[in-house]
Design brief:
Two copies of one chain form a homodimer.
Chain A lengths: L6 E10 L4 E9 L3 E9 L3 E6 L5 E9 L4 E5 L2 E3 L6 H13 L1 E2 L3 E7 L10 E6 L3 E2 L12 E7 H9 L6 H13 L5
Parallel strand pairs in A: 4-10
Antiparallel strand pairs in A: 1-2, 2-3, 4-7, 5-6, 5-12, 8-11, 9-10
């Protein structure tokens, strides 16, 4: 890009929720004038692909209020303040699936939506996961069910639309295609 | 999923922007009680991979206010009311890149973020694109630059983090991996 000449005149938090704040930025460009831009301020996100020794992926059926339906996803969530992404990923895996592993590797990161969000979503793979307990169902608002899916079936499940969550798909794409040489 | 028992007690639009409305849904579950859920109400989105006869991808460097930096993306945007996604994709390609083609095929669709959005992003490939004019720079708030990139380089550019936009990556993943057998 030749120019990054937007300057911020004023920023204000116009609405707060427990997972993001809605920010309004009033910005000016020497050739493009003044405009308002709306941005979701959110912590970084993580997701993690738990792989069993027999190459099964531990996934979560979860009711999602955006689409008012359930999705098939890998475990994931928000990075807590001061937390390393890899620590957040392991925590979410244990909480959501009951599986754990100490063999966790970052496989890629994306901007979920750079137009309206500044955060990253980091993706990890956890190898040789083992069941260590029950999923934590203490978050009363979450409704989940753990399932295992052969890794060999994932490609077809994405192609046919059985898996639709963009960030679950970018995670699998790093694992199986873009960074597959690493594994 | 065994149960989808959330009922909506009340919904209200708590903030409106030109690209989404922020909705607050008050919902109740027989076993999980009452909770507020926040959802971005937005139209469906599209993106499109314009391929030249020599297998170059026409891409757009664009300043993005969410990350306050520029990204390298394929053309895309919002589907207008009553518009077919394929028509929106072609319109966005012409507007943002100046290239056109009548050989356009859908390659996949994703939920950009099913937790907080209900919409889909549809991905298309346009083959044998040709330059028909200049990009439309009439939207004063957008700052873009068109570049061409060999399709053969895309995989490495995603692996190395040169391309970070999750929805551009899901589009390329459908083209090069999940639905590559179609092309």
């Amino acid at each position: 890009m030749k120019s990054r000449k937007w300057t911020t005149i004023e920023s204000s938090r116009v609405y707060s929720t427990r997972i993001f704040d809605l920010m309004r930025h009033h910005r000016e460009h020497p050739h493009r004038g003044k405009h308002h831009f709306f941005v979701l301020s959110a912590p970084n996100w993580v997701n993690i692909i738990p792989l069993t020794p027999s190459q099964e992926v531990v996934m979560v059926h979860q009711f999602r209020h955006g689409i008012e339906d359930s999705t098939l996803e890998v475990p994931g969530g928000m990075v807590d303040p001061g937390e390393e992404p890899i620590v957040a990923a392991r925590r979410e895996m244990i909480e959501e699936s009951g599986f754990d592993s100490d063999d966790i590797v970052e496989i890629g990161k994306v901007h979920p939506n750079p137009a309206i969000q500044g955060n990253y979503c980091f993706s990890f793979v956890a190898r040789n996961v083992r069941l260590i307990g029950k999923p934590d169902q203490s978050d009363g608002a979450e409704e989940t069910e753990v399932v295992t899916v052969p890794l060999a079936d994932i490609r077809k499940m994405i192609a046919t639309g059985e898996i639709t969550h963009a960030l679950t798909i970018t995670g699998f794409s790093f694992l199986q295609f873009y960074n597959s040489a690493l594994f």
